[in-house]
Specification:
The chain folds into two domains: about 170 residues, no CATH class; about 120 residues. Helix content is about 55%, strand content about 0%. The protein is built from 13 helices and two strands, in the order αααββαααααααααα. The longest helix has 19 residues. One of its GO terms (cellular component) is membrane. It comes from Brachionus calyciflorus. It holds the Pfam family Hid1.
């Protein structure tokens, strides 16, 4: 957290290069590469560990309630959150006269405004989040990443700290490429108590997106891909997929998911005005939830 405070001029000078480097490392990474089968067994992928560590570092640096004490070396919590001007077109370093609790990385992420940058980050999120769901004729022929939980945290923080990025995601058709892996991770982790945090962050992402009209409208697109998900076979839309996945979560035997039931039902309520139709399978599941 040395660079998350504006205590010294040298910290300000190095924060922006570190921030842009972390973004480039994460979102330019392609674990599949040229698509050669079993290439990760023949060649060592040294970038995967670098990308994973970069995700973890960026998650910590974007924490809003951590600041460096002026006179001490340990960390302390503060209720103040730095608010930057999102309309500022310049992604430059804040003035050195800023208060010591200013988080430079939050300032930088909130000032990103170009569609090219948003598209670069969104495509990176889609490529990496969909990687664990890749299916091929040759079993295990594609490399699969394991740091998807860090990616979900980053996506949630990006949407929360930069509303322009969230609106860009909602306007894009690739929002469904975010929805499907999130539902996949939720269903896959429902019985694993060690992944309860993953389920929470996935539900929070969907709760944040469901408050916008564009998200509900996009759910009417037919669901044609077949992800290896433990749900009944159906023919319908992405709204059907969401309801069936939520039914799987709520009816699971994991008692630690009970605090999330209200959030799951709230998401269904938020999207309900925009759903045009439901298939028989999802309709049955929805009625079962409301009984």
């Amino acid at each position: 957290m040395f660079f998350s405070s504006t205590k010294k001029t040298i910290q300000i000078r190095h924060a922006l290069p570190i921030f842009t480097s972390l973004l480039n490392i994460i979102f330019s990474y392609d674990p599949v590469g040229y698509g050669l089968p079993y290439n990760y067994l023949m060649f060592t992928d040294s970038r995967e560990q670098l990308v994973e560590v970069s995700c973890q570092i960026l998650c910590v640096l974007l924490e809003t309630n951590i600041q460096l004490n002026r006179d001490q070396t340990d960390f302390q919590l503060d209720e103040k959150v730095f608010n930057t001007n999102e309309d500022d077109p310049n992604l430059s370093s804040p003035s050195s006269s800023s208060s010591n609790n200013t988080n430079l990385f939050i300032s930088y992420i909130s000032r990103i405004h170009r569609d090219e940058d948003f598209n670069f980050m969104l495509k990176g999120f889609c490529r990496l989040l969909n990687n664990p769901m890749i299916q091929t004729f040759l079993p295990g022929s594609c490399k699969k990443i394991s740091f998807y939980q860090e990616l979900l945290i980053l996506f949630w923080k990006f949407c929360d700290l930069n509303k322009k990025f969230m609106y860009f995601v909602l306007k894009s058709s690739e929002i469904l490429e975010i929805l499907v892996p999130v539902l996949y991770f939720l269903v896959d982790a429902r019985a694993d108590t060690s992944k309860i945090g993953l389920i929470h962050i996935g539900v929070f992402i969907l709760l944040l997106l469901s408050g916008e009209r564009n998200f509900g409208v996009r759910l009417n697109k037919p669901y044609v891909s077949r992800v290896p998900m433990d749900i009944p076979v159906f023919s319908g839309t992405h709204a059907d997929l969401l309801i069936i996945a939520f039914h799987k979560l709520i009816t699971s035997t994991n008692q630690r998911l009970q605090p999330l039931y209200d959030c799951l039902l709230t998401i269904i309520v938020n999207i309900s005005p925009y759903i045009k139709s439901l298939c028989m399978v999802s309709s049955t599941k929805l009625i079962h939830l409301l009984e």
